[in-house]
Specification:
The protein has 819 residues and is of the alpha+beta class. It contains 10 helices and 41 strands. The protein is 19% helix and 23% strand.
């Protein structure tokens, strides 16, 4: 009886699948069901059939494994093989897109090959399990080999060698055009000089020794972010000045600090009294401006009080724009206000004659332009709040007295004489929030402009706003009148305002030397223009653009495209990405549901995919240009954004900000009061928060400014500091902050989303050195010579609020070891 019972129970055990197989089958079945349902949705939207077929394969595999059959492994192997073939057909040997398609299947496949699963299957199919496991093993090995091979490749990488320097030719060109020499010992303006080249003639640091750079000193400003009233976008974006033996910098909360340039010791600090309760969109100070004084005659003296200046007057001056709409003049020697400036107050009020005054909604986040006799001031205006913002007027003031000399208002461009006391500037006219450049020999200041708010709907824009929006405008230094303008986007509906300082360089084209201007844009163009008249040097073509704007608006029929462009290729469904096959599938569905017809797809109520997005291929960090090699060092980024218009029924309801807006906060950013639509803006990301487009998202690239050719380009930066998994691999991440180049053949960059400052070989773009930063380095480095004879590289590392990089208050100098 006992023996019969044993014989009876044994077949029952062998006919029942183990609990492990049940769990595996349930997981595969649910995964397959998700792919089938979402895959059918994707097919209905016109997308790939792969996900539905793969889902059916997983369900079949799950059912067979549930029954304890080893043939379920064959079905799973078929799904993996299908995935490999499909992935290679779509993306080739590109590791990150390939990994996103196969990572989950590969990990599950390894588990199915484990001894635990093998023993469970052998209870039903002891003879066949070995063969089915072998087939699955071969398929997984093929996937692994494809992944390993793809790891060694970088699609889109461009290899090349930049031209060698031609110092003699550059010197002759500079002499012929009266161009200022590049800075060497000092760094006297935000971009090095008023030319905005971000280039230094120092050559002590070279590709051969840059790896020896070490920290020379480290200064903490004490500026603490997160104070009451701080906006989210509180940023440390400063590029310090170096004058004589001193460094001068400003902090996000508007303190001005002077340091010993060789030791980093603080000399003085000035903290202005800033009006409280500001409705700020962002809080930053990108830098100060320096006036050498009327006795300097073009030289760069060590800061010192003028021997003939009465108390409270200054010959040399520092200019500091404040968050409450002022410009303060300070003594470089003492840090005290120059009281003779501004009629005895040491400051000028930028709100004077402005309409719609709300302190905090307008101020100069960027340093002012300084000439022999003027400072030229622009300012940022709130984006997408209303159609009744203040004016974007550009004004020139006497550098010594602060008296208004001229004003250029795009809403009234022909009247540049100082405005009458009882009048106001044009409401809501386009502004210039970025950094301008100046050529005093030609008598021109070059102003990059933005849009008339709101950014994404332009049905009521004025003629003046249309003419000068998203342009670089050359203004006469004497009169403020327009000498020429070049529009980079027609009827801008994408927030493609011109964000970057123009870089001025004298280009040798054949036997001729042409004074040129290089204007980077958010959409990826480098417009290379003759800075005397705005005519293109590198050809510019008008390309047909998508049509069909929202109700009451229009789209321009064509848009300008430069022969030197980093505009990323149009997105395809196969470009969708994610951490797994599932969020990648969700991104594909989202892609097909959005309106997307390539670059310049108009915003819509459906939701439009804007690529590149308003983060920009280039932003305020601009580029660096080498006047000897005649090349540019650039940092193109590419991130897609979603822009959705929300119809407004009135001018009071908060459609996109919600009902719990704090008291005295920003007046409803993106609500567009006065326009028929509010705007929802967001990065195009997956449910896991990853970009829906495959990496790389950021590069470094060298460009020949004469031929318009890209010399070299490769991905740059890691996601070590911006992902749940601190991957140290070079995926290529966006950059916010500019590069600096040197005559030694090395470029430096700190603005990537990972916390590093890097040094690159200018000739081929290869990374030669990196140093870990204690916070995000979203600023532009600079370089100078210290009193000990060493070349220093200086980095501000304090993070960027809206990018989520680590905040701090660090100023770090690097140099070669002392001998």
């Amino acid at each position: 009886m006992t023996r019969s019972s044993a014989q009876f129970t044994q077949p029952a055990e062998s006919s029942s699948p183990s609990a492990l197989l049940v769990v595996v089958a349930v997981v595969l079945g649910l995964a397959g069901l998700a792919l089938v349902v979402a895959g059918a949705w994707l097919i209905a939207l016109g997308g790939s059939w792969y996900y539905l077929v793969a889902g059916l394969g997983l369900i079949a595999s799950a059912l067979l494994l549930r029954r304890g059959g080893g043939i379920g492994l064959l079905f799973y192997a078929a799904v993996v093989l299908l995935t490999l073939v499909w992935a290679l057909w779509e993306v080739g040997f590109d590791w990150w897109p390939l990994a996103a398609r196969g990572d989950v299947f590969f990990v599950i496949g390894l588990f199915l090959l484990s001894p635990w699963v093998a023993r469970a299957l052998a209870r039903r199919d002891a003879t066949g399990i070995g063969r089915t496991r072998a087939v699955l093993g071969v398929v997984l090995a093929a996937f692994l080999l494809a992944a390993v091979f793809s790891w060694t490749r970088e699609p889109g990488r461009i290899e090349g060698i930049a031209p060698l320097p031609d110092a003699s030719g550059n010197a002759a060109a500079a002499a012929a055009l009266a161009s200022p020499p590049p800075p060497k010992d000092d760094w006297t303006a935000y971009g090095g000089t008023g030319f905005g080249q971000r280039y230094s003639a120092l050559d002590q640091i070279t590709p051969a020794n840059v790896g020896q750079l070490e920290e020379a000193w480290h200064f903490r400003t004490g500026d603490v972010r997160g104070q009451p009233g701080d906006p989210e976008e509180t940023t440390f974006e400063v590029t310090p000045l170096k004058i004589g033996e001193r460094l001068f910098l400003c902090t996000p909360h508007q303190a001005v600090i002077a340091l010993n340039a060789t030791t980093g010791e603080q000399i003085w600090r000035y903290t202005p009294d800033i009006q409280k309760s500001l409705a700020l969109q962002h809080l930053t100070c990108r830098g100060l401006s320096y006036y050498a004084g009327s006795t300097a005659q073009g030289a760069t003296p060590t800061p010192s009080p003028s021997p003939s200046a009465p108390a409270g007057e200054c010959d040399a001056k520092l200019f500091m724009p404040t968050a409450d709409g002022r410009v303060i003049a300070l003594s470089p020697e003492s840090g005290k206000p120059c009281m003779a400036f501004g009629g005895g107050s040491g400051q000028i009020d930028l709100w004077k004659n402005m309409p719609n005054v709300k302190v905090g909604s307008y101020y100069s986040t960027s340093p002012v332009v300084v000439t022999r006799s003027l400072i030229v001031v622009g300012g940022t205006v709130l984006d997408n709040v209303s159609t009744k913002e203040t004016s974007g007027v550009i004004r020139a003031f006497d550098v010594n007295t602060g008296a208004l000399v001229w004003n250029w208002d795009s809403g009234n461009p022909d009247e540049t004489a100082p405005i009458a006391a009882d009048r106001t500037y044009t409401v809501n006219s386009p502004n210039s929030w970025s950094i301008s450049s100046v050529d005093e020999a030609l008598g021109l200041v070059y102003v990059p402009t933005g849009n008339q708010p709101p950014d994404q709907w332009g049905g009521k824009r004025t003629e003046g706003a249309e003419r000068y929006s998203s342009s670089v405008v050359a203004l006469d230094l004497t009169t403020g009148r327009v000498r020429w303008s070049f529009q980079t986007v027609h009827h801008d509906l994408w927030d493609y305002d011109v964000p970057s300082q123009p870089s001025l360089i004298d280009l040798r084209v054949g036997s001729e030397t042409i004074p040129a201007l290089v204007q980077p844009t958010k959409q990826g163009e480098l417009f290379v223009l003759d800075r005397r008249n705005g005519r293109p040097i590198v050809p510019v073509n008008e390309r047909p653009a998508p049509q069909g704007a929202a109700t009451g608006d229009r789209t321009a029929p064509t848009q300008p495209v430069s022969g030197l462009s980093f505009d990323p290729p149009a997105l395809k469904p196969s470009d969708m990405w994610g951490g797994t096959i599932f969020d990648q599938l969700a991104c594909r569905i989202a892609f097909h549901r959005l309106r997307y017809e390539g670059r310049f797809t108009p915003p819509s109520t459906q939701g439009s995919l804007i690529y590149p997005g308003n983060f920009g291929v280039f932003n305020w960090g601009s580029i660096a240009v080498d006047p000897q090699r005649q090349i540019a060092f650039t940092t193109p980024a590419s991130l897609a954004f979603v822009s959705q218009l929300v119809p407004r029924a009135d001018d009071t309801t908060l459609y996109v900000q919600g009902k719990s807006r704090p008291n005295d906060s920003l007046p409803a950013l993106n609500e567009n009061f006065g326009a028929p639509f509010a705007i929802k803006l967001s990065a195009f990301t997956s449910v896991l928060g990853l970009p829906c487009q495959a990496p790389p998202w950021g590069h470094v690239a060298g460009a020949d400014l004469r031929s318009g050719k890209v010399i070299w380009m490769h991905k740059n930066g890691t996601v070590r500091d911006s992902s749940p998994l601190p991957l140290p691999f070079a995926m290529g991440v966006p950059n916010l902050g500019g590069p600096v180049m040197t005559a030694g053949g090395v470029a430096f960059l700190s603005g990537t989303l990972d916390q590093y400052v890097r040094g690159y070989d200018v000739g081929n773009g290869k990374e030669l050195w990196r140093s870990r930063l204690p916070a995000g380095g979203q600023a532009t480095p600079m370089t100078y010579r210290g009193s000990d004879g060493r070349q220093f590289v200086l980095v501000a590392a304090g993070g960027h609020g809206s990018l989520g990089t680590r905040t701090g208050d660090h100023v770090i100098a690097y140099a070669l070891p002392k001998r």
